[in-house]
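Crash report, auto-generated. Payload:
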Amino acid sequence: AQSVSQHNHHVILSEAASLELGCNYSYGGTVNLFWYVQYPGQHLQLLLKYFSGDPLVKGIKGFEAEFIKSKFSFNLRKPSVQWSDTAEYFCAVTGFQKLVFGTGTRLLVSP
Amino acid sequence: DTGVSQNPRHKITKRGQNVTFRCDPISEHNRLYWYRQTLGQGPEFLTYFQNEAQLEKSRLLSDRFSAERPKGSFSTLEIQRTEQGDSAMYLCASKEGNEKLFFGSGTQLSVL
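Recovered output after restart:
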C-alpha cells in the first residue's frame, strides 16, 4: 500500500526566506504525486502535481517541486516566502485511484 | 468556491446518536471520495465511488459507517451510534477521470 511521510511538522520562517518541505513516499508502482495547501479556514487546494515527464514541476504562487525517483522524494520549494504562504501543506500520492496524504507541515511565515 | 458542496458545515451531537452528512460533487464528476481529517493529521481516505458504485472502503470505516451515492450524483455518509472518537472533519472530494481532485469545505463533527 502507498504511504507518504512528511518530516517537518512545523516550520517557522521570516518573509523572503527560502522554503523546502520534505516528502517521501512508498509505493511499488507508477505514482502520481501532489502537493496540496490548506489556508486557515479554507478547503484543500492543489498547488502542483507530477504525473510524468519533467521531474521539476511548477505550480501556482511560485511553488515548485522536484520528483527524485531514486530517493522516492517529492520536495516542495519556494525561493522566497510571503506572509500569505502561512498555511498547512500536504504531500499526497496516488496509485490505484485514491489519494493518500501525509500528515502535513504547518508553515508560519512571520512578517 | 470549488463547486463541491457539503452540508452541514458543523454538526454537534451526543454520543450514541446517528448523524448523516451530504456531499454534492461537481456535476460532471464521476468519482466521489470521502476523507476524514483530525487535528494535526492529513486527510485519511474512507471510501470512494465511481458513479453509483462504491469501489473501495478503508479498513478505518467500521460497520457503524455507511456511504451511499444512489444516483451517481450526491452522496451521503451516515455514522450510527456515534462515539467521541468520531469527532473530526469529514471531507468530500470529486474528480473526473485523472483530473485533479476538488475538495469541499468539509463537515466538522463534534461528538459530546
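Post-recovery validation: Chain A touches chain B at residues 4, 6, 9, 32, 34, 42-46, 49, 51, 90, 92, 97-104 (CB under 8 Å).
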